[in-house]
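Lab notebook, design round three. We kept the backbone fixed and only want residue identities now. Task for the bench partner: fill in a sequence for the structure below.
Input structure tokens:
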């Protein structure tokens, strides 16, 4: 039995410059976790990261033909769903006997639609996929009954069947570390086109899920509103293994890395006790990032922090159900700056239903007020799995059959929202102005001169000036 996996690229052909940026994006940890569990249970596996390998559709189909698996699994997100469907269709034409399986967020929330609209897809793995995929593979190998496999969807002569959910793994320490050797790719992490992790880099997850219910996020439903941390010792064991393999820079991709500040502080203290010479990046909630926490992370090697600030308007934050305030965001940035954080990034979402043009303006101006190094502006999206999608559907504004594969900006379809094109123009103007301010440029130069981390990043990005310029030009 052989099970091959594909992490598909975005729902469009990449330009050559974009292919350069895609090579070395974050590794697909979800697939690597599943593939490792299968491999440890005697199943042959192979993995392709299509975007990172810069493979075309034709290249990818040829890869599958060469691997010749019994089962082909796709990790599908809203951004890659159509690419996955095209590849799957072409593979099925070449080999009608192959079993094609879709998984991850998009497949979980669209299981019945996918099976209804894609006759070339045979089954859906819903939710976390490690042990569901293992049971599915065993069932197919032994000729068992699919209805006995928990957490899947499939067709039979009576229609589409959804089996009961697979229980979540309570002890996440029991899940084996993902085997990164399954992919021969040099990964990195980029901000506005610049590689901020030029040393040997990978991502790591120290917890799963989130207890918050932000309306723009699908994590709540996917992880069943639970947060399950790995122990500090288990996380440290993986870090030590990776360091022994030559990795020196890491990105924690937890949905809620700072959920338990005491746990993070303990991890940081253990990193220092073990004298681990590493640098890392993480995300933090603005209501969980005290000066004490920020100082401990900096001393343990954290160089970049992402704050999910989202909006400068309390009313909009309440609509998102973010459970934070603009004042908390300002305080978190000050704490991180005082603690010596090298780079502070803030992520913002604009274009909510009923959000006024002035409120959008407030958010676009907010990064200057709170002294961020880099702002990232995003337009609110609605997709199956988040509450924004359900709201627009209930109001009769959203055509599910039209947008289920791609999602949609509410600002494109909602009459009480600032038009999407107008929002894009506002973002473009503010983004350019933010980076071209003389005081900002001088401040960032001074911060860079004082930082060995920043200097190393600058030196290692001298050959990427064109990519950085293009990102600054097109980023919205």
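Proposed sequence:
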């Amino acid at each position: 039995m052989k099970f091959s996996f594909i992490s598909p690229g975005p729902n469009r052909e990449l330009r050559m410059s974009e292919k350069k940026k895609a090579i070395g994006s974050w590794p697909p940890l979800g697939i690597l976790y599943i593939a490792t569990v299968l491999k440890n249970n005697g199943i042959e596996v192979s993995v392709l990261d299509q975007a990172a390998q810069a493979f075309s559709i034709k290249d990818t189909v040829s890869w599958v033909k060469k691997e010749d698996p019994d089962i082909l699994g796709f990790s599908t997100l809203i951004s890659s769903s159509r690419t996955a469907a095209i590849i799957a269709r072409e593979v099925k034409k070449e080999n009608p006997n192959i079993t094609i399986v879709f998984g991850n967020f998009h497949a979980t929330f669209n299981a019945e639609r996918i099976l209804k609209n894609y006759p070339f897809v045979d089954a859906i793995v819903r939710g976390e996929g490690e042990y569901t995929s293992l049971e599915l593979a065993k069932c197919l190998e032994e000729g068992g009954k699919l209805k006995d496999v928990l957490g899947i969807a499939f067709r039979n002569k009576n229609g589409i069947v959804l089996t009961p959910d697979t229980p979540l793994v309570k002890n996440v320490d029991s899940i084996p570390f993902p085997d990164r050797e399954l992919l021969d790719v040099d990964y990195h992490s980029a901000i506005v086109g610049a590689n901020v992790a030029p040393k040997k880099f990978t991502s790591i997850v120290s917890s799963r899920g989130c207890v918050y219910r932000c309306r723009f996020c699908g994590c709540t439903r996917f992880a069943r509103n639970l947060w399950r941390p790995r122990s500090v010792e288990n996380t440290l064991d993986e870090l030590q293994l990776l360091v022994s393999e030559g990795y020196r820079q890491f990105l924690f991709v937890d949905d809620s890395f700072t959920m338990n500040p005491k746990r993070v502080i303990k991890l940081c203290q253990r990193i220092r006790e073990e004298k681990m010479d590493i640098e890392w990046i993480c995300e933090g909630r603005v209501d969980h990032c005290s000066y004490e926490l920020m100082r401990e992370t900096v001393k343990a090697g954290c160089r970049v922090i992402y704050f999910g600030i989202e909006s400068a308007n309390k009313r909009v934050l309440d609509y998102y159900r973010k459970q934070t305030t603009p004042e908390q965001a300002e305080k978190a940035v000050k704490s991180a700056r005082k603690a010596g954080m090298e780079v502070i990034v803030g992520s913002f979402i604009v274009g909510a239903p009923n959000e006024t043009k002035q409120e959008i303006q407030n958010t676009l101006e907010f990064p200057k007020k709170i002294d961020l190094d880099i702002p990232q502006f995003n337009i609110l999206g609605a997709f199956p799995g988040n509450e924004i999608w359900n709201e627009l559907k209930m109001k009769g504004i959203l055509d599910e059959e039209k947008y289920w594969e791609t999602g949609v900006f509410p600002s494109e379809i909602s009459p009480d929202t600032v038009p999407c094109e107008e929002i894009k123009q506002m973002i473009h103007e503010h983004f350019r102005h933010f980076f071209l301010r003389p005081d900002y440029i001088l401040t960032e130069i001074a911060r860079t001169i004082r930082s060995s981390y920043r200097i190393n990043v600058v030196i290692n990005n001298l050959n990427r000036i064109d990519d950085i310029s293009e990102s600054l030009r097109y980023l919205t």
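Keep this in mind before ordering anything: The chain has two domains: 2-162, 188-474.
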